[in-house]
Amino acid sequence: MESHLLVIVFLSFGLSFIFALGGVGSAVILIPALAWIGVPFNLARPTGLFVNCVSMLGATWLNFREKKLDVKFGLPIIVSSFVTAPVGAWAGHFFPTQTLLFIFIGFLFFSGSMMMFFKGSKYANQYREDRTVAGPLGVGVLAGFVSGLLGVGGGGIISPLMVVQGFNPKRVAMVTAFSVPFSSFSAFVTYAAMGSVSVKILVFAGLAAWTGGYLGTRVMQKKMKPQSVKRLLGGVLILIGIKFLWTMA
């Protein structure tokens, strides 16, 4: 594992930077990348969660500084995903690795398709301001469980489901970046309690991920359109899913 440390740091920084350009966490692609360089899947998942947490904290810090966060809007998602993420992490230990890999492949196709084909722009003029909590709570429950089970963070679930409920896409993007660190952290703590972490990897990968997420968000806010980046990243996720299926066939 020591020989892989530099590669893990490079991947954590690079993928956090690239995925921050699209406003999402990098765990969904970091986990297969770690698996391909020889990191066991049960160690790759908590590492992905930790990297997701710190990279999205970098993005959230920028949003907070620019006063773009709506804490009350995101609170139902944060609370419900924070509670259910450990349940997903705990449940993951009862699934065979092969089964989890197939579930993970399904998530790659779902997340990649939503990034490529979901047109949030057609909801851009919707400004749902009611404070109903049922919809966001349900989204948080699902996102938290999947985040813990697969180690991917819940951003790929939160964003599309909140937008189709009528919430403005720009507000949802800010809340997603704000919510993901909470669910990722609670699931990560569960993995840590079960002994499935490497402290040395987490320290170096975490520092690299925070820097990558912060810089990627700066570049995105000033120079790039997140939707264009998301389409590209979505295509990459689908190709990775196909490669996984080919390898397991």
Automatic annotation (TrEMBL):
Keyword Transmembrane set for record: yes
Main location: membrane
A GO cellular-component term linked to this record: plasma membrane
Topological category with respect to the lipid bilayer: Multi-pass membrane protein
Localization annotation: Cell membrane; Membrane
Transmembrane regions: 7-37, 43-64, 73-93, 99-118, 139-164, 184-210, 231-248
InterPro entries: TM_pro_TauE-like, TSUP/Inactive_protease-like
UniProt entry keywords in alphabetical sequence: Cell membrane, Membrane, Transmembrane, Transmembrane helix
Family: Belongs to the 4-toluene sulfonate uptake permease (TSUP) (TC 2.A.102) family.
Name the record gives this protein: Probable membrane transporter protein
